[in-house]
Amino acid sequence: QVQLVESGGGLVQAGGSLRLSCAASGRTLSAYAVGWFRQAPGKEREFVAAIGWSGGRTYYADSVKDRFLISRDNAKNMVYLQMNSLKPEDTAVYYCGARFSLSSTYYYTRDQYDYWGQGTQVTVSS
Prior knowledge:
Helix content: under 10%
Number of helices: 0
């Protein structure tokens, strides 16, 4: 079983940047596809970005494409989400999820992930 812990959230002004981190323990993250999701108050948890186990394949929600960048460092058991040009509508709790996968593909629906972190709050002020 893999445990995930997100960090790096905070309060930032519109147009600013944040880098979220997802730290894994219990298993080597190199055997897992990882995704970032977010949930705003009163809304469903939605997909943000995903990355295959090798880092060679990534996928983004249209709302964050060209602003966010997902990456991973398997040697450190870490996955990152660099968020640039932040907007107030990016305000949400951000979660990372992991799914055991020996395929290089990514996954972009909630039910495809087996493990979740506790989330980190991102607030973007206008």
